[in-house]
Amino acid sequence: MSDKLLVIGEEKDGELRNVTFEAIAAAKKINENSEIVGVLCGAKDMKNQGEEMIAYGADRVIAIKHDRLDAYTSEGYSQAVMSVVDDESPNGIVMGHTSIGKDLTPKIASKLNVGLISDATDIDVEGDDVVFTRPIYSGKAFEKKVIIDDFIFATIRPNNIPMLEHDESRSGEFEEKDVDIKDLKTVIKDVIRKTSEGVDMSEASVVIAGGRGVRSSEGFEPLYELAELLGGAVGASRGACDAEYCDYSLQIGQTGKVVTPDLYIAVGVSGAIQHLAGMSNSKVIVAINKDPEANIFNVADYGIVGDLFEVVPLLIEEIKKLKE
Predict the structure, then answer these.
(1) Rounded to two decimals, what is the model's pTM?
(2) Which CATH class is domain 201-323?
(3) How far is CA 292 from the centre of its chain?
(4) Mean per-residue pLDDT, 290-306
(5) Partners of 177 in the beta sheet?
(6) Which fold has domain 4-177?
(7) 56-90 burial: b if 16+ Cβ within 10 Å, else e
(8) Which pLDDT score is estimated for 292?
(9) Neighbours of 45 (CB within 10 A)
């Protein structure tokens, strides 16, 4: 069993992503008696982020601060993380299965010559074995994996493993580590990205997804209103993105984002297999579609057969009444 586990933190817009705290909880599930060491990379002061990791269960935090870590590159971040691995000699590493996690962890695993379990949705301890559950075949089945060597390396899917309670009374050491980040083949000069307001879709507990049945970009406006009322995020099927009703950054599915919210409301989504691969593991699925034969109803827990342009405004009206 592990004595020390590293948890690699990840931030967005200066705030740690929830999956960082979920990764700490995952590390505790792997071995509740292990020392959890948080790892942060960046160019600015990270003490507040370190304190947040400690409040959510980390025992201490190591921050690697360097100008070349201001924007993510796999080379820069891997050098930073490997320096901590060399110093700490951990028994395992846990990180979120995010776009950065999917890029960074294979590089580190290759350097360490160890196996990597990716996209874990659950962790169980059976005797001396740590058993990871992960989806396969686009989410249509699950497999259980056991690491047989002494090093545990895994990424966890966001919004699947509950965070530990936030405890501000917890104390732990915060250390800044100097690392020489050198020989980078890639240097980020500038980052230009489309920003979306509200909740991050990959970590949202509620997702409202629009399909081709929404008919237009204006048709997405009630979905944004509904999402705001429920404290959720808006997503889309590939059909809606291809029709230019919304940006491809909202795409959910096999070639888009994978989400597992507590509540997924599919509005005008037919339910193509590629879309189901990105949302079928949601805890509760509600489908709104005027076609009673739509495939989305086969995976939905609740279905509403009706015109979305009538049903969604009614939902908004009723939710507003409940909030009064």
Answers:
(1) 0.87
(2) alpha beta
(3) 32
(4) 97
(5) 64
(6) Rossmann fold (3.40.50)
(7) bbbbbbbbbbbebbeebbbbbbbbbbebbbeeeeb
(8) 97
(9) 11
